[in-house]
Specification:
Elements: H1 20-25, H2 30-43, H3 75-109, H4 115-132, H5 145-157, H6 160-204, H7 214-268, H8 279-294
Helix pairs in contact: 3-6, 3-7, 4-7, 5-6, 6-7
Membrane topology: Multi-pass membrane protein
Pfam families: MotA_ExbB
Protein name: Chemotaxis protein MotA
């Protein structure tokens, strides 16, 4: 059962093929036609009819005009902002710092330092030193350059000072690399809005001079807005957070390594000769021995 549907277009007001007389009876002013049709329906003179040639009219779904994602992507604007930012960062920081920043970025997604694994790998080595002594213990490497070198220095010199010196040397190199990476990302974060402004100026320089280039005018304004947007997003959502992430990950790794080193020193102090023990550790060992004798 299909009722006639009034439609506003230039061809006809009712899509009823084969019933031109009925369509002509509703011709005239639109408001008067609707009022008359409503009056006929109230009186019961107009009833839903079954028209075999009628096609129901469904209005097209409205397209969301709040935001069109396709308009947020422009290759030229991205090339100006991203390419200019990377080129300026490389020229300002140098290739060495840039490679360090890329390596630190890869380290965020790679295998990080695991304190529990390092402690478990060192536990057997420490037990052997406590049982047989430092001199008769063979070096044991498990893949961590700092602790491999530190234990080698400890066995070679039989001194806690050599262990601490190896740790300090590796820590200094890690801190320097981390600072270079953070500085590089901060430079990129500062330069991104600058190239967003540069892209805006480039796009505004392409504005047409006459009234015949309305399309070119719209394109230039759109490019100006997008380059500014890309510069702000690239600096504040990409490079600045990356700098903070690299700094936090580096600080966390140093804390974990220091905990493992403190644990290693506490375990090995009893296996070292008396002259190789630091004064503070010697006092700690003496106090522990005194408490054990009193017990």
């Amino acid at each position: 059962m299909i009722s006639p549907v009034i439609r506003k277009d230039r061809a006809s007001f009712i899509d009823c093929r084969g019933f031109p007389g009925f369509c002509r009876s509703l011709a005239g002013d639109g408001r008067a036609r609707r009022q008359a049709f409503a009056g006929w329906r109230q009186k019961g003179s107009v009833k839903p009819l079954k028209f075999p040639h009628c096609r129901p009219f469904y209005p097209a779904r409205r397209r969301c005009s709040f935001m069109q994602v396709d308009n947020l992507f422009d290759a030229t604007s991205a090339l100006i902002v991203v390419g200019g930012t990377i080129a300026a960062t490389v020229m300002r920081c140098g290739l060495r710092d840039t490679r360090t920043a890329i390596a630190s970025l890869g380290g965020l997604f790679g295998k990080r330092f695991d304190a529990s694994r390092a402690r478990s790998e060192l536990a057997g080595h420490v037990r052997e030193m406590q049982t047989h002594g430092v001199i008769r213990t063979a070096p044991h490497h498990f893949g961590d350059a700092e602790f491999d070198e530190a234990t080698d220095a400890l066995i070679g010199t039989r001194s806690i000072g050599a262990l601490q010196a190896a740790h300090v040397a590796h820590k200094r190199r890690r801190v320097v690399r981390n600072r270079r990476a953070v500085r590089t990302f901060n430079q990129a974060a500062d330069l991104s809005p600058v190239f967003g402004l540069a892209g805006t100026l480039v796009s505004l320089s392409q504005l047409p001079g006459g009234a015949e280039g309305a399309g070119d005018f719209t394109t230039a304004i759109s490019m100006a807005v997008l380059t500014t947007l890309y510069g702000l997003l690239l600096g504040n959502i990409v490079f600045a957070p990356l700098a903070r992430v690299v700094a936090r990950v580096g600080a966390k790794e140093e804390r974990e390594r220091q905990k493992v080193l403190d644990w290693l020193e506490g375990q090995l102090v009893s296996a070292l000769p008396a002259h190789a023990r630091p004064a503070a550790m010697e006092k700690a060992v003496a106090s522990i021995a005194a408490r054990g004798s009193r017990a």
